[in-house]
Amino acid sequence: MLVDELRALLGVDGVLTGGALQARATSWSDPTPPDALALVRPRTTDEVAAVLRLCHAARQPVVVYGGGTNLVHATRTTPRDLIVSLERMASVVAVDAQNQTLTAQAGAPLQRVQEAAAAHGLFFPLDLAARGSATIGGCIAMNAGGVRVLRYGMMRELVLGLEAVLADGVVLTALNAMLKNNAGYDLKHLLIGSEGTLGVVTQAVLRLFPAPRTYATALLAMDEFAQVTALLPLLQRDLGGALASFEVMWNDYYRLTTTPPALGKPSLGQEYAYYVLVEALGGHERFDQVRFEAALDHAAHAGLFDDAVVARSHQQRSELWRIREDSEQIERQHHLTFGYDVSLPIGAMEEYVADVRSAIALHFGADARCWVYGHLGDGNLHINVWAPQLQPQDGDRMAQIVYRPLTAVGGSVSAEHGIGLEKKAFLSLSRTPAEIATMRRLKAALDPHHILNPGKIFDQEEMSHP
Ligand SMILES: Cc1cc2nc3c(=O)[nH]c(=O)nc-3n(C[C@H](O)[C@H](O)[C@H](O)COP(=O)(O)OP(=O)(O)OC[C@H]3O[C@@H](n4cnc5c(N)ncnc54)[C@H](O)[C@@H]3O)c2cc1C
Asked: Which of 86, 208, 224, 258 could pair covalently with 264 via S-S, beta carbons 3.0-4.6 A apart?
């Protein structure tokens, strides 16, 4: 039996079943115990390869677990699935300060990697509120974005090389550590954003940067969306590329995260239509703050905001970020909400949000609530919706309201959270038939028995009839 073979391979504590399995939670978006055959905890790449060889031969479906923080049911299992957890492959392997690279095992939490880089005076810029749990492998598999994409890019731009085990157990070693390597296809890009469907990432070489010496942070408030859209290029120009974050909150979201029981303090009045959290990172203590405040002065004279607070201490900076990052309040305070992560051109956002709000009010009543916030500098909005009578079966209707208008403006149903199970019915709104057909051919080539994360991104039946 497969579970016995896995025990022989990984030892008794390497294979969890029964109560030990039930003590786990599936993910942030599925807080229930996983329904699965077993959970295995390999310690090495060779063990991952041996597990996948067995699974490939037995046509055994496999779901990879990182930190479980995905928001699209990407790690949901069926009773037939085997979970491969990377929790015992969580070390930072090496930091190369001269070449500014860091090698980590895929199960290493993002925060551990950030701290290891900082210990060498370096900086791993990917950052998101789930940093304590989200793993490097999970961030690669989801091509995570977060709050500094504007300056440093998404995970794809930060991975120099990786090692992965393919569905048949072949170890794909592609641990490139150079910025430039155009020797043939760059296969790491197949794995980045593949949501555990093309291989199991076991290690990665990440790109580091000099650690910033200064963080200049401010919260700005304004009533017109035109002020928001004009502010972004002005700050990018005046700050000479130092602008790392440009995070927007519509009024409802700011009110939610600055009103008890939320712990955020309303640093600015709660009456403005929009709030923008901006942050510039730099390397010169005296000069950077002066330049930052000069840029804000310029924006004030151009009438691009109506009120502002500049962080004067590390604590004030954390307080401003708490207002933006405390999205948990939505689910804490409202039972059954639907969340969306869309991207669209910045110029189309105001009308899009207004149209979505009206459609939600029309279909779900005037009491419906709609919180909008996100990484506006990257063209990425998060939208969370709640209504008094909302039922799980309303999900499809709500998704149609949020997603349908994106096609006309060239937007995407998934800016950074991936597809998982949650958005697969809407994949074709953001990808052409040729793109989807090519994705299927890649999947069939690399995982001919469809054992890796079956049913995610694509339906299994569709896979057998490409
Ligand atoms: C509070 C909060 C804030 C967040 N903010 C952001 C944000 O700003 N930006 C953003 O992009 N995301 C954000 N997320 C989503 C989430 O943190 C990211 O998607 C993250 O990259 C998931 O990492 P994980 O280790 O938890 O992966 P998991 O949830 O464990 O897995 C995600 C997917 O990756 C696969 N996978 C995991 N590890 C591997 C591996 N080693 N090899 C192959 N496949 C693997 C899984 O099978 C699954 O399909 C947020 C989530 C929360 C809860």
From this structure: 258
Residue nearest to atom 9 of ligand 1 (CA): 146
For the record, the structure tokens of 363 come out as 């279909």
* pLDDT tens digits, one per residue of 342-358: 999 999 999 999 999 99
- Report the atom number in ligand 1 closest to the C-alpha of 110: 25
Confidence of residue 30 (pLDDT cuts 50, 70, 90): confident
Kindly state if the Cβ of 162 falls inside 6 Å of ligand 1. no
Tokens of 349: 């956002």
Name the closest-CA residue to atom 11, ligand 1: 144
Q: Which band of pLDDT confidence, cut at 50, 70 and 90, is reported for residue 461?
A: low
Residue in 39, 40, 48, 128 to alter for ligand 1 test, most ligand atoms within 8 A of Cβ: 128
Q: How far is CA 377 from CA 55, 150, 164, 235, 417, in A?
A: 43, 6, 32, 11, 17
Integer Cα distance of 103 and 160 in angstroms:
10
